[in-house]
Amino acid sequence: MTAFRPRNPHWERHVRESFARQAFMTLIGGEIVSLAPGACAVAVKARPDLCQQRGFLHGGVTTALADTAAGFSAYSLMPEGSAPLTVELKINLLSPAVGDRFVAKGRVLRSGRTLTVVEVDVDAETGPQSKLIARMLATMICLENTPDAPQETQRSAHG
To answer: Which domain holds residue 83?
Structure first.
């Protein structure tokens, strides 16, 4: 894996503060379980209300988990005063999502000035067993001079 140098000296604090503002991650119980420059893993515990009718973790939740891991993997390398935004993603749902916990592990493949390409594996964990259930490839754009804050906050700040 390539060693990346963050462009923001406060990258870890900014990533964690931004994640804490993710209302959807709060709703589903998502948490950052590991974080390094160019890498982020996000996990969620299995719950019946996150499943589809057959009892598998819903594909939308799997995708949101992977997209979040991708976004914060990319964000860890972006300059201060910027914000990440997904511009493209492709996910392969490889196996029914059955487990006690689901972990999306994002890792930056290439970090450019504007675009960052991230790969994410999503594993289903049951006890010590882990099974790959999805793989995502995503492209994130770095929105420079864009606060990583809610739109309402930005609108009220500008009048």
So the answer is: 11-157
Is 6 inside any structural domain? no
3 found inside a domain: no
Q: How many domains does the chain have?
A: 1
87 belongs to a structural domain: yes
**pLDDT 10s digits, 118-135:** 999 999 999 999 999 999
pTM for this prediction: 0.92
Place of tokens 């594909």: 59
Instruction: Give 41-79 pLDDT, tens digit per residue.
Output: 999 999 999 999 999 999 999 999 999 999 999 999 999
Sign of the CA dihedral running 69, 71, 72, 74: positive
Q: How far apart are CA 4 and CA 21, in angstroms?
A: 25
Does 135 fall in a domain? yes
Q: Nearest 5 degrees, angle CA 15-CA 36-CA 149?
A: 10
